[in-house]
């Protein structure tokens, strides 16, 4: 009579891990335990990094200008809020570029 194992049994889990480690070694994909939890992302090309930085910079300026224009339109104080928020958007864009460059 065949005895079925419970898939939630600790012994079955250890057996599965041993079999997975064995097949990974056979395939040449021996991974250390501390590297197993890390997500590996492919490196971005220089063009992709440049486009990311440029889009973050431009979007911060556009969002600042849009918020300033909306405040000007609501309160009728044209162009003061737009100029102020355009400058704030520029500062935010520069900070985003610096942060993105530091991450690279």
Q: Report the strand count.
A: 0
Give the number of helices: 4
- Summed over residues and divided by their number, the pLDDT gives a mean of 81
- The rounded distance between the terminal residues' Cα atoms is 60 Å
Helix content: over 70%
- Could you list the spans in which at least 5 consecutive residues all have pLDDT below 50? none
Q: Order of helices and strands, N to C?
A: HHHH
Largest sheet, in brief, is: none
Q: Supply Rg.
A: 27 Å
Q: Can you describe what's shown?
A:
By secondary structure, the chain is mainly α. It is built from four helices and no strands. The model has no long low-confidence stretch (mean pLDDT 81). It has two domains: 8-40, no CATH class; 46-103.
